[in-house]
Amino acid sequence: MRVTVDDVIAYCLAKPGAEESYPWGDGELVCKVGGKAFAFIGLPGETVGVKCGVNAEDAAEWRERFPDDITTSPYIGRYGWNRVRLGGGVPEDEVRDLLDRSYDAVVAKLPRGKRP
């Protein structure tokens, strides 16, 4: 099944403590928890940036599995962030898994008082 931007937005914002912001204008929605980003959703390009590992090497596994649809995120790729093209070859359950992992990684680093 094809994953849409609307599916990703709904899935992200349904997570405990999730909030949306548009720090760079209407083209990119940033989903945050505890004030920290866990998903960068490119609205016109139908992409989502997610935390896939501690660093670029950890995140490389995903890029190797889906070379046509997952690339290193610009500017923050060295910190383990990848960009996923929606509607491509990454199955819906894998996209959800990536969103869950990104959310969980960010929540784990939040101070206890900011965790949902």
TrEMBL record:
Species name = Saccharothrix mutabilis subsp. mutabilis
A molecular-function term among this protein's GO annotations: DNA binding
Tell me the keywords, alphabetical order: DNA-binding
Annotated InterPro entries: YjbR (IPR007351), YjbR-like_sf (IPR038056), YjbR/MT2646/Rv2570-like (IPR058532)
Can the keyword DNA-binding be found in this entry's annotation?
Answer: yes
Protein name (database record): MmcQ/YjbR family DNA-binding protein
Listed transmembrane segments: none
Q: Which residues form a coiled coil?
A: none
Q: Does the keyword DNA-binding apply?
A: yes
